[in-house]
Each structure stands twice: as C-alpha cells, then as structure tokens.
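User: Second chain of the day. Same drill as before.
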Amino acid sequence: MRIKSQSRLKKTNEKTRKEDEMIRRFVPLTAIMVLSALVILFAAPGQTGAANGLKTRDGVNDRTLSPYFFIKSDDPKTDRLPLKSTRADVRIAGVMSDVTITQGYKNEGKNTLEAVYIFPASTRAAVYAMRMTIGERVIEAKIMERRQARQAYEQAKREGKTASLLEQQRPNVFQMNVANILPGDEIKVELRYTELIEPEDKVYEFVFPTVVGPRYATTPVPGAPDTQKWVENPYLHEGEPAPYDFGLSVDLSAGMPISRLTSPSHDISAEYSGKSKAHVTIKNDPQAGNKDFVLRYKLASGRIETGLLLYPGQDENFFLMMMEPPARVKTEAVTPREYIFILDVSGSMRGFPLSVTKSLMKDIINNLRPNDFMNVLLFAGGSSVLSPQRSLPATLANKNKAVDWIESQQGGGGTNILPALKRALSLPKTGDVSRIIAVVTDGYVSVEPEVFELIRKNLGQANLFAFGIGRSVNRHIVEGMARVGLGEPFVALDKNDAYKQAARFRRYIESPVLTGIKVAFDGLEAYEVEPVAVPDLFALRPVVVFGKYKGEPSGRVVVTGRTSAGDFKKVIQVKSDMASPQNSALSRLWARHRIMRLSDLNMLRPDDKRVKEVTALGLEYSLMTAYTSFVAVDKIKRADGRIVTVKQPLPLPQGVSDSAVLGQGGRKLGAPRMMYNALGARTKEALTDRRLTTAPAETEEHKWSKKMGPVTLTIEEVRGDMDRAAIKKALRSRQNIFEACCLKTNQKVRGEVTYRLLIDPYGKVKEVRVVTFTLVGGPSTVACLKAALKATRFSPPRQGIVEVIVKVTCR
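Assistant: Same format as last time:
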C-alpha cells in the first residue's frame, strides 16, 4: 500500500509540474487580457470600484466598503491628479492654537474635474472657517445644515459652477470636494480651526495629523450611508511618497521662556526671536506627510500656564479655567489588580506597529507584581484568549507564557474589534480586585460609535486605557475609548516611545492624581459649564473647565477633590484684567466641547433633540459638526456640467504595510479590491505576502468536513469572495495525494495539521503556512501535505485574494 501510494504521489507530482509549466506559459498572455478588462472595469476616469456595480452570481453587489490600491496610469490622455500641495500654518499663543490648512489644486489634464480628498485633523479641532480662491476671486464659505450644503454643492456642480464642500466624516476625518476644476485651473482652498493645548506632566504637545490610515469596514456597498463611503478610498503602496507636496510651519508664542523644544516625529529647525517665541519648520523630508507631526515644548520655569481666561463677547461672555493638578503622591501599598490586555494583530499592525506593540507589552507584563492577575486577548478577523476560563496569576512562568505568545504574532487579516471587545469585557472577573483593561491598536476601523457604546454599557467597575501604536494612528478611537472608559489614552510612535508610554501607564495605575473633583463658583455668575462633571485625573494634566458668565467678572473659583495624601483645595481669584477680546477663540472652544459631549451622549442614547442641539450649535458658532458643513460656490458658470471625478490617493502611514489594505475585506461580503494597470505592473506588489496571526480565528460560518479514506479534510474558515463548493471540489480532486502523505512513512501517523492558504485571483495558491499541528509519528507528513496543498488548483475567486483555513486529520 505504501509503495503504491508513493508511486501515485510521484506521478501526480510530475503531472502538477507539467501543469505549472503550462500555466507559466499561459498566464503572461491571459494576464494582459484579464488585467486590461480590470482596468476598463475599475480604473475608468472618474470612477471607483464603488460605482462599478460588480455583480455576484445572484446579480447582487455584495462587496463591503474597503480601501484599495491606486495604480498610476502612464496614458497621457488620463487626467492627472489635481491635488498638488497641502500645508499647515500654525500659530500657538499660550494654550490656544490656530491652524490654517491650505490645499492647492491644479488641473493638468483635458477634462473638467471634481477632486475628492480625505484628510485628518485633530480630534479637538474646532473648524470655524473656509474660503476658496479662483485666480483673483475669493469666495467665503457658508456654514449650512449638512444636507443643505450637499444639495447646494451638487446643484453648483451640475450648473458648471466651481464649488467646494467640506464635510466631517468623523471628528478627526474630513472630506473635501472641489467641483468644476477646468483644464489649467489653479484653485486654493483654506480652512481654519482652533484647539486647546493641555500640558501633561508640565510638557505641552501639539499634534498635526497628516494622513488618514486605511479603515476596516464590514458595511456592504449597497445602501451604505454617506458617512461611511469615505472608507472606500485609494491608497499608494507601502513606501510610495505622496503625489502632492506637504509643508508645515509653527509660530510659537509661549508667553513664558521656552526651555525645551523637540519633535519626536520629524527633523525640525527652530529660529528663536526672544526667549518665549520660536518659528519651527520641517527640514526637507519627502516622507514628511505620511506621519503625524508632533511638537513638544516645556517652559523654563517648570510650571504650566494656569488661571482664568475671559472673553467678554457682544452677546455672551465666556471663560476658561486651567488649574495645575497637585503633585503625584506615591502610594506605598497598591492593591492587587487584574489586567486584561486586548491586542490588535490584524494586517495593518504587521511589521513596525506590531514590533512596537511587542516592546510595549513585554515591558508592561514583565513589570506586573506577583499578586496581580492578567489575561491577554489577541484579535484580527477573529480572536483568541490566553486563558479563557480565568485570568492567570502574574507569576514568572505565566508572564513568560504571555510574552512568548505575543512575540509569536506576525499580523494578518481584518480588524474585527467589536467581537473582540465583547469577548474581553465578558471574561470572568477575578475575585474582589480592581480591573484594568488596556486596548492596543492602530485604530484603523470605522466602527468608533459602536465601540464607544459597547464600552459604556459593559465596562462595569473597571478603567480602560487605550494605546495607539504607530506614527499616524486613529486618535479619535484611541482617545474616545479612554474617555468613555474613564482612563487615559497613550500613543507610542516607536519602540523608544513605547518604553516611555509603558512607564506612564505604570505611574497612572498606581493611583489617580485627583478624584472626586468639584468646581464651585463664588461670586462669579457662571452657567452652561463644561464638562458637567469633571472626571478623575490619572495624568498630571490640569483641571480644565469652560463656561459662560453674566455681568462683570468677579469672585473666585474653588476646586476641591481628594488625593492619596488627603483632601485637596485650590482657589483662583477672578479679576477684570483677565478679560480680553483676543480670547475670542473661547466661544468656539466652549461650543466644540459641548458638541463633543452631546455627540457622546447621542451615541449611547440616540435622541433627535440632541441632534438638533448639535446642529444649532454648529450653525450659531460657525463650526463643523457631524450635521453641519461648509460650502463655497462661485457665482460664475464656468463649465457645461460634464465632469470627471477623481479620488485623491493617500500614502500609507509610515510603518504601515500593504497588509493594511490587503487585509481590509469583509469575510462574508467580499474580499479587498485591488486596481491594476493594463500591463500588470503592480501584480507582484498587489499579491504581497501577508503574514497571518498564529492565534486560531473564530468564525460564525459553518465548517465543512469530508472523510477521504485515512484522511479527513475540514474547511475551518474562508476569508474572501470565493465559492465554498469550488474549494471543496478542488480539495476532493487531490484526495489520492493527501492519502499518500498520511501513509508515506512506515510509522503510524495520527493527528492533525491546520494550514492557511493564500489564493490569488487566478486560483493559484501563493502561500501555505502551518498554523498548528499535533501529528504523532510523521514529521515529514506536515511538509508533504503542505506541498500537496500548494499544488492544488482552485477556481478563480470572484475578486481579490482569498484566505482559506484547512485542517487535515490523519487517522
């Protein structure tokens, strides 16, 4: 039997070799035909995959919203990308910054264009103005209710008028549309926002995000709401520079002498004009626009700017109070804690971000005390828990076990954060100990509202800390998770920064700086104060309170609370000379903070009244919100209404690999899409190897199992758009080979091996990776089965690349 099986295997391998040779000769010819068809289907000017109406076998478009790769055409007839430059001019005065973003568009093609550009801003940005410049004409934008602004823009586009529309897709993600850019046109669009800079541990930090990372979404294309469609955006390949220029400058007027001025993200140059003023620019760097710009500075006195700022407005008066927190008191005996670490090991985390995560977690876990408890949950498309039944004591052996498991991860697959959080939050609690939950991710998902709601409803008696990993993370979800989880956010830019953030985390969890905070107004007629309740302080950052006041400024503000050393009280006197018309930004900052709170409440309990209140605040204070937008329309008709829409491709954030795009496809609703040029120039890059997490993934799909003599094949999971029946047929066709592998030795082979297959758009297996194996007596069988799976030919997927997890059992 063994001799016959080996002979049969030899013949089959020879047949497979001949098939491979024939395919190698055949593919170059068919590739051009197929890829040319893909260009016609996907890359027509002004269209993206979302508009192409791809059909399944049932005639229904079941793809999910997902990012895709952009391929630059060498066809001189194709319109060039219109965005030519983007720059930020920042002015910081005291604790307030004012930022002007200028986007330059130029049409170098032959068609009238509409440009669509997705870009980020600070999560705390109060966007209050926009203008459009066409030649010598300047058009100031108007703030409108979102639907009305979109209607005004679409009407102008149809009528051939140049127009621009700015919409908020997330508090930190904006979309700019510019319509009717005529050939030869140069158009400039400026938008302005302000934000408060809160120091932490006496260090001020200004962050300017530069690029929006690719988001994972499971929303099907048909019926997708407008607020989700931005996810389907083109990206460049890893390392490709942005096709537009990026520039940034900062004018800093600190109000006190500056002792230290650094940037952990960029190479900067600083020119000082006095001890408290500096002009900062980025040195020549072609990759400056693919990572967040971070500027940190410290004042020479070692103190932070605290006290009251007052703005006597025409109709309303506003105030801002910043109170320096008390010094941290070291607690001698910290009670035992239970730590639940939730780690993102998806495709976007592969490489640099996951390497930073490993350094971070190794530092944190190794510093846990023996009387602490811990557990680890890893998630990508599915999730796995280190100890599903209970958390483990933080012994040396258990800490090594956790670190080794994390170290084994390589990153791959989607980013299903919601099921992972549900599972982690439902883990059994260990006795009567304080629970700390830490989520580590780059945040490249599009389900922020659902995540915040889930945490609010299920957190219980715990604090949640969120770690953003990378140089251009989604700070909205990182900061939002910490805010609703009553914890603190952290962002680790690189490995060195990871150690600093780990040290900060350890300091914070020892004990809060100040709890039970209450703010009272004695003699100052304050009202509409934000926040309504001041949360506990873990970090050494000031207590910040916004509000309005009536009458003349007088009296005092009294802040009380508790520290680990006892009761705390601080009094700030209100003086008339604190009022200044230069503090006009206080009205916008107050409104922005109130809008944020109402939006958070609305995610927890949707209420049309709150939507109307947010809309009214946006219109009254001329602010961008989820329900208000800026629109600028030129009065002159300049085109005939025929227009080509071009989505501006974005560079991948520094350190993020192609897996961030390749892995962002819905498992049930369709695989990630890729765009190719006619000659297949990007085929190799598009099929870039995706390393997959070794943690077994969970799936709601049913398994298929088939006994074949001494072999049982089980399809554990299919990730992508491929017919399961076709997979079964292909595997059944190799029955004799699988049997031969299990019988190829004189030893008694029993057990199972789980493999992950990566199948390309032609149905060829590009990679086979062993996930787990428990075979006894047949180590060479693992390699034999792997080779047999690698040689299996599948029917081409409906689109994209497909992952299949197969378990082979030898009996």
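The first strand starts at residue 68 and ends at 69.

User: Great, on to the next one.
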